[in-house]
Amino acid sequence: MKVVAINGSARKEGNTFILLNVVLDELRNEGIESELISLAGKPIQGCMACYQCFKNKDFRCAVDKDIVNECLAKMREGDGILLGSPTYFSDVSAGMRALIERSGLVARANDYMFKRKVGAGVIAVRRAGSIPAFNSINLFLLYNQMLIPGSSYWNMAIGREPGEVKNDAEGMQTMKTLGQNMAWLLKKLQA
Ligand SMILES: Cc1cc2nc3c(=O)[nH]c(=O)nc-3n(C[C@H](O)[C@H](O)[C@H](O)COP(=O)(O)O)c2cc1C
User: Fold this and answer.
1) Residue 172's closest CA among 124, 129, 131, 115?
2) Distance between Cα 55 and ligand 1 center (Å)
3) pLDDT 10s digits, 144-158
């Protein structure tokens, strides 16, 4: 079993990276393989609404000049998908938003290609706006017929400078519990 994590932060190894790895460590403890893809330094444009994906139905986006098709292939291969984003002006980053638009339409065009995978989102935040960001990811997962495990709180942790989220004990525990619940659900689904 494998979980693919995508970090939508512009900072490759910042707070979102730390949070994703706390979740992935729990999954690895349960013998679940993982891979982390960073969108940092890899600009992604939004959906052009060309609807070519509905004609091609090849699990790919027709705009083949950025990292989206690589993400799509990894997301398709994974049993679970973990999406992480910092809070940027009360929502996900532009990179994560563009990935949501593009991969969401391709998935819809290909008979909901993420259907019944396990999915979750995690959010880093300095102070406020994490809930709309978390909602954006959850709405994407739900639209795609994915199954979302819960945690002991909403999946967010507080920090501004890279590393500061480690001081948020409740946030770190939320990530650990999320990883444990994600592993539990993945194993139940495989049984
Ligand atoms: C463009 C931009 C917008 C931001 N908007 C918010 C915001 O709306 N609310 C907030 O609490 N923090 C905001 N922040 C702070 C980040 O969410 C915070 O530093 C987070 O820990 C960054 O995660 P990272 O280290 O993974 O990049 C913003 C940061 C940037 C660069």
Assistant:
1) 124
2) 38
3) 999 999 999 999 999
Around ligand 1, the residues with Cβ closer than 6 Å are 9, 11, 14-16, 86-90, 124-129, 159-160, 162
Q: Are 165 and 157 in contact (CB under 8 A)?
A: yes
Question: Does domain 2-190 correspond to CATH entry 3.40.50.2300?
Answer: no
138 residue type, one letter:
N
Residue boundaries of the structural domains of the chain: 2-190
Would you call 65 exposed, middle or buried from its count of C-beta atoms within 10 A (0-12, 13-18, 19+)? Answer: exposed
pLDDT in tens, 71-92: 999 999 999 999 999 999 999 9
- 53, 56, 142, 145, 162 from 112: Cα distances, Å: 12, 15, 11, 7, 36
Q: Ligand 1 centroid vs 137 CA: distance in angstroms? A: 16
